[in-house]
Structure formats: C-alpha cells, structure tokens
Amino acid sequence: MASNRHLGRIVALQTLYEQDFRTECGDETFVLAEVLTRNIDRYAEMIDDKSFIEQLVHGVDKKATELDETIRPLAPEWPIEQIARMDRVILRIGTYELLFEADVPPKVVINEAVELAKAFGGENSSKFINGVLGSVLRQKEASTKKASKPAKTTKKPAKPKKK
After folding, report:
1. Residue 109: which domain range?
2. What is the domain count for the chain?
3. Cα–Cα nearest to 97, from 79, 80, 116
4. For tag attachment on the chain, is the N or C end more exposed, with fewer CB atoms within 10 Å?
5. Which has more confidence, 131 or 3?
C-alpha cells in the first residue's frame, strides 16, 4: 500500500501542477475533476486507493489559500509566488497532509515530499522542502501543546463558613 500511496502522490502532484500552470496562464477551459480523472485513468492498473488521490487533490485545492498562508512566513526569503511551481505544489501537498490528514505519520509525509522533490524538483528542492515542512510540523506541534495545556486558574480564597 505504501508504494501505491507514493504513486497516488505523484498523480496528485501532476494534477495540481497542471492546475497551477493552467490557472496562472488564464486557461478558462481547465476543469480539475476532468484532469484528475484523466490522470488516475492513466495509472488505473497500478492504483488501488483512488479515493486517497481524490481526497488529497480536492483537499489541497480547497485549502490552497490557507496552505499558502501557512507556508509564507516559514520561507520569508521566498515569496510563495516566486517559489518554483513544482516546489510550491509539493509544499502545498505536504502541508495539507501534515495539517489535515491525521492518518499519515508526519515523518512519512515529510519523507514522501522530499522524495517527490528529488524526483521532480530542482537541485536544492529536497532540502528546501524538508526545511519548510519541518517548520510546519514544529509549528503544528507547538500549537497542539499550547492547546492541550490546561488554562491556569487562580483560586479565590474560600469564604469563611457562617456558623
């Protein structure tokens, strides 16, 4: 199943990359569902978990703005619009999985994103992806710890009982 999910992430990456490219070019004929179906059909014999790919693609698509706002402060030297398209899409996928997919261990998410960056990104993409997603994970863990700490309450002195 793990290698099947890896292929699923590749299909999701292809789909979301095409969406990013065609949308930026102003292509009004782009329909995400059609491209996703085409890409899944291309690998139909090797894909067992079609719903994983669909959930990943639609999740990243719906949360793209939120994902970009999460990534932006973690890579301040690189405005999101200037990050290489492939790296940007990989970061969105990894950030989505880290924040919204509890069934995948965080280290697996980061490792998968790094592997995608090695296969499809530039020379330093894997290091960049690893660094940013590591920061996303640390930020998530810090906010989770903050939220799970009980709020401090100050005890008022007990009122003396009337006799």
Report:
1. 2-138
2. 1
3. 116
4. C
5. 131
CA pair distance 39, 109, nearest whole angstrom: 22
Q: Looking at the domain assignment, is residue 146 inside a domain?
A: no
Task: Please state the pTM of the whole predicted model.
Answer: 0.87
Residue 55 gets the label, from left (phi > 0), alpha (psi -120 to 50) or beta, of alpha
pLDDT digits (tens, 9 = 90+) for 103-143: 999 999 999 999 999 999 999 999 999 999 999 999 999 98
Other C-beta atoms closer than 10 Å to the C-beta of 104 total 14
| Domain containing residue 128: CATH number | 1.10.940.10
- What is the token pair recorded at 143? 């906010």
Contact 33, 54 (CB under 8 A): no
For residue 18, is it within any domain?
Answer: yes
